[in-house]
Amino acid sequence: MSNKKMGGKLSKLSQFSGIRQGSEPVEPEAETLCTPTNAQSPSQDKAKRKTDSDKETQVTLNIKILRRQKDWLSDTAQTIRDNNEDPVAPADRVYPQHLIQVAIDLLHSNEVDWSKIRNVEELRGHLNL
What we know:
By secondary structure, this protein is mainly alpha-helical.
């Protein structure tokens, strides 16, 4: 492709990419660097930060479990959801991950001397499982 054709395409693309055709570099305005496209007013931003800091950050945990355990978790969560006679808001419904969170809380609150547990079988024995 010739330079003339490329120059025309570059000038069209430069309007979107921030590339300038002039010889001197142009700094972007400070507002464009700091302002997200869905910017909120400062009061809304403070309110959002306050509510976000009130909640703990959730992270994804990728674990492998037996198929029968997965099926049990799914069936049990479905049973809990079915126990509700009235509709339940999506945020309040029980799913397998909620059961795992409860299991973690149960392990955390159980009086286990974790410094003496050497493997899963010892933990099962201590918990009488």
